[in-house]
Specification:
two-stranded parallel sheet, 12% strand, 148 residues, globular
């Protein structure tokens, strides 16, 4: 199954209101459904420049970066790798639909554990504070306050 999840602005601007959904294409409203709830339902995320790719990798959901050559550049960003996810090997870059389909076919045979790749952005991954970064931050701040 495919779950289509437009960016919140695309929902607000009604960009995809004419898209038909059926039993094979479901819709995830990014204004209502939190990213982690959405990611629990999928095995692969295909996206352009978006933080959802890192969130996917953190949850071991395979992130594919679609390097859409028609993508608009906004805010003087780098349309090829705005967040450095490709450069840092967190995501796999796909330049064509065929690239995406080939990778999905490969993943149907074998889906590797890729969660560790996001460690470059989330240092607590695979440590005793994995999933508890707010507790770690609170401990650091508390200790700093006590030492002054």
């Amino acid at each position: 199954n495919i779950i289509f999840r437009p960016h919140p602005w695309e929902i607000i601007s009604n960009k995809y209101n004419t898209l038909l959904y059926d039993d094979l294409i479901q819709f995830s409203d990014s204004l209502v459904e939190p990213p982690f709830d959405y990611l629990k339902k999928v095995d692969v995320v295909i996206s352009g420049n978006s933080g959802i790719l890192l969130e996917a990798a953190m949850l071991n959901v395979y992130p594919l970066f679609w390097n859409n050559l028609k993508q608009e550049t906004k805010y003087k960003d780098n349309p090829k790798d705005k967040y450095g996810f490709v450069r840092n090997n967190v995501v796999l870059q796909c330049d064509t639909i065929d690239d995406i389909m080939n990778k999905i076919e490969d993943l149907m045979i074998y889906k590797p554990n890729i969660r560790y790749l996001s460690k470059i952005y989330v240092d607590t991954i695979d440590t005793k504070f994995d999933g508890k970064s707010s507790k770690l931050a609170a401990n650091i701040i508390t200790n700093k306050i006590r030492s002054t």
